[in-house]
Model the fold of this input.
Amino acid sequence: MRMIKDTSPKALYIHIPFCVKRCNYCDFNSTVSASNTIDRYLDAVEREFETLKDRYLFHTVYIGGGTPTVLNESQLERLLDSAIHYGMVSDNTREFTVEANPATVTQAKARLLKDHLVNRISIGVQSFQEKHLKMLGRIHTGDDAKDTFALLRKAGFHNINVDLIFGCPGQTLNDWEKDLEVAIGLYPEHVSTYALTYEDDTPLARDLQNEVISNLDESVELEMYKTAITYGTDNGYNHYEISNFAKSGYECVHNNFYWKNLSYAGVGAGAFSFINGVRTAHEKNVLSYIDGILQNNDTTVFRERLPDAQSAAETVVMSLRLRKGVSNADFYERFGCKIDDRFRDQIGNLSREGLVSYEDEHLRLTEKGLFVADTVMAEFL
Done:
């Protein structure tokens, strides 16, 4: 099996690791820092922009965190100005997303984002109900979330995603239905629904271990997931990826590069890149990252070159997250063989169990397979 290298990353991720406070469930690379640390961090990010200048033409740019909108107005303007100055973003950028926390978006910040070519906002709502927001450790209220959505609409944003979490301790199916109703009632272009996970060394995981809280029964979580699918599809959203729903034409372009296992570049502390079959990651510690970049040292702490067989397996696994699955044409173009040439046994076994279909030159999850996706995907690794 030969792999044709995807040499030029079309997607850029920029990590802003700062938050007002860490949420109880969060294991992302985030921290609470003073303003002068943020300023030095932006120095380092600009240095990375400079090294990337004229090397790649990015079709999508995604600024995530942490909480990018925790930057004050001058810091946010500086970040956006530098992204444009160094050519990370231009008028030709297809999709430029910034993540936002409802408690940190002001009218001035919304205007800055709109004036600096940002054309998509992803709001971390998670819930509109105070009891669940408090348990998750969020700093905003349900009203904050609705007000922020309205503010962004008024600023001229016509592509807004709303993130929601289900499976919270004590959450009922009725609670979840109410969150879906409020979210869809805002008429966002995109909705993401994620099952709560208990990541190691988070306050929520410790509470679970100490029996302060208890997780929901898997059957309840499954009903919540099915309810999200019903609400989404009944209200005109395309369930195009396991956790994501979009109005026609508003599927997340940036994330499609990840789901198709294509090349991408990452800037910032802990950011990953995947270029020419090599996966790398920056130093996660914010201060070590800053010092390393500003002193022109290599801040790479992880590097692996994926064997072709592993890359093929990961491509199938990631692409199965998409409801349309993976096509033989795309797979052959990258790996020089058909999907069933490489995974005949897995496809045969899973097809007999009704978990995948392999028709019309596409491998995809069935509805039955969708509800046990992790188990299905493990068969290819």
Residues 11-259 form a domain with the TIM Barrel fold (CATH 3.20.20.70).
